[in-house]
Q: What sequence folds into this?
């Protein structure tokens, strides 16, 4: 989750889970799915880098008595307005305590591996970064409280998961149940857990919208080819869409963020 920053001893309570993609080929035939890679190396790298940042946060608390990475990188409206624009990205790498990082990394590990399998490495990384930025922009616009956490990006992954299931629903025998489960997870996190005082719900909502928009424009669209009983399924959208769509979504949210500078 993304929480309002209150030092390293804050206690987040969110846990986000996802339903596995229960792909159901015809039992009489053989269906082959073409994936870029079966190893979600970007997810592993994101978890590893985030854990390293948390280790640095912990060490700095022990050595200097304060959380140096958080002071440099958390979302702070005042400092962003003074020109520290990196704070619209860096909060995704920072966390406020052991429970906070545990639940977020568990959610990233659970959801991210499957999304990366379908999206491919670079498109998945673009989705993660764009979602984090969109979430921090919404937080910047709608709440003055400092915040940090990876759930801006994780909510983007959940939004992308919902769009992926919907856009490829004919390939899943239980797509309605999968979408219902995803929407229930979103609703619980936005309207139940999001009502807690220390939770940055606007960051969650922005990440969800940013991830869903990217997924709608650049997410995988499966198409079958071949002759039954041997069918091959591949993604009709090329990776060449990734960069233009990522830049477009980024510019959209950057323009929205710029409105805060104009009316400050």
A:
């Amino acid at each position: 989750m993304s929480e309002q920053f209150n030092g390293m001893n804050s206690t987040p309570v969110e846990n986000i889970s996802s339903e596995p993609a229960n792909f159901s080929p015809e039992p009489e035939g053989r269906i082959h799915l073409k994936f870029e890679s079966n190893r979600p190396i970007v997810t592993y790298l994101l978890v590893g880098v985030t854990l390293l940042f948390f280790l640095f946060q912990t060490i700095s608390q022990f050595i200097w008595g304060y959380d140096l990475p958080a002071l440099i990188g958390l979302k702070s409206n005042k400092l962003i307005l003074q020109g520290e624009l990196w704070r619209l990205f860096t909060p995704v790498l920072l966390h406020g305590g052991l429970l906070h990082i545990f639940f977020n990394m568990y959610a990233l590990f659970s959801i991210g591996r499957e999304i990366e399998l379908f999206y491919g490495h670079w498109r998945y990384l673009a989705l993660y970064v764009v979602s984090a930025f969109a979430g921090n922009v919404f937080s910047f616009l709608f709440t003055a409280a400092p915040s940090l956490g990876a759930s801006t990006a994780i909510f983007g992954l959940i939004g992308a998961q919902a769009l992926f299931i919907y856009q490829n629903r004919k390939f899943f025998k239980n797509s309605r149940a999968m979408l219902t489960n995803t929407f229930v997870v979103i609703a619980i996190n936005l309207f139940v857990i999001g009502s807690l005082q220390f939770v940055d719900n606007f960051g969650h909502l922005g990440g969800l919208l940013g991830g869903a928009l990217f997924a709608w424009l650049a997410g995988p669209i499966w198409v079958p080819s071949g002759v039954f009983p041997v069918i091959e399924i591949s993604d009709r959208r090329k990776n060449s869409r990734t960069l233009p769509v990522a830049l477009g979504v980024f510019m959209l949210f950057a323009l929205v963020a710029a409105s805060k500078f104009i009316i400050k």
